[in-house]
Amino acid sequence: VINYNDVSGSYDTIYGVSFRNSDNARITGNIISAMGHNYIYALYVCGNEFGIYDNEITAESDINYACAINVEGPGYGLIEYNNIHAKAPSSAYAVYSNNNEVTVSYVSNTITAEGFFIFGIYDDSEEIIDNTITLTGNYTVGIVVLSEAVVENNKISLIASNVGSESIWDLVPMETSGIVVYANASILNNEISSNNKAISLLGGSSTITGNVLTGYVYVESNTNTFTRNMINATSDYAIDLGNSTGNVITENELYANELKG
Asked: Residue 71's pLDDT is what?
């Protein structure tokens, strides 16, 4: 358990456990709980062939930013069977990596987060499979896909008020969405519950198949394929194609604003 007893400046930062330039690191069976004032990271990892298994990892901030697991490159590894939690008044990331030299697989993790603008998995990922993600806040985002990935069999539940305004910068728009996609992705057999967007396709060309979605799909990117999805939305469109082109939509069950189409 890491706690603080002093604050140093407006960028006061604490790292609970840090593995920098550490290849073949194995982090298994630990309870890591890190409490900070401004910026707090429970676990920081940078290295090749790392493994993070069966841990309880928590990061909580008093006033600003919390991140439970931060992965930096160059590096690759596996994060599996962990309970991961982040909580902060402003922004919270259960898992964060925004580096094109990182490749991570996420398998069978239980992820929770609380805050104003919060994220479950924000990453340059290879596989995101069988994770359970539950987020509570003003604006919540389950998964951000920054590079080509398979996103399969995840259960995402977003509890969001969708109100309020804070000065928080991020590549991702401040809104609620189950999965936000910026690259080619295979989005398969996920269950998403959102009172706003279930999936936002902002870049790449993706395959969206066999998902059960509460919330609508927003499309900015081109040449996406939708097959055998069930989408139940209270908005005017189950799939909002905007100005996108080349999309293929077949064998889906779509409900929008109480109408079936």
From this structure: 94
Q: Which two tokens stand for residue 203?
A: 């870049």
**115-124 pLDDT tens trace:** 999 999 998 7
Least confident residue range of 4-8, 110-114, 168-172: 4-8
Dist. CA 221–CA 244, nearest whole Å = 6
CA distances from 21 to 16, 73, 86, 125 (A): 16, 9, 24, 19
Q: How far apart are CA 138 and CA 161, in angstroms?
A: 5
Q: pLDDT above 90 covers what percent of the chain? A: 81
Please say whether the beta carbons of 185 and 205 come within 8 A: no
**What is d(CA 13, CA 42) in angstroms, rounded to the nearest whole number?**
11
| Mean pLDDT to the nearest integer, 43-59 | 96
Could you tell me the CA-to-CA distances from 26 to 49, 51, 80, 85, 208 in Å, in that order?
Answer: 9, 5, 12, 20, 34
- Per-residue three-class SS string for 128-147: EECCEEEEEEEEEEEEEECC
Whether 154 has a pLDDT exceeding 70, the answer reads yes
Q: Report the half-sphere exposure of 251 (CA within 13 A, side-chain side).
A: 7
Determine the Cα–Cα distance for residues 60 and 14; give it in Å rounded to an integer: 11
Q: What is the largest CA-CA distance in the chain?
A: 59
Task: Using DSSP bridges, classify how beta strands 259-260 and 253-256 pair: parallel, antiparallel or unpaired.
Answer: antiparallel
pLDDT for 30 beyond 60:
yes
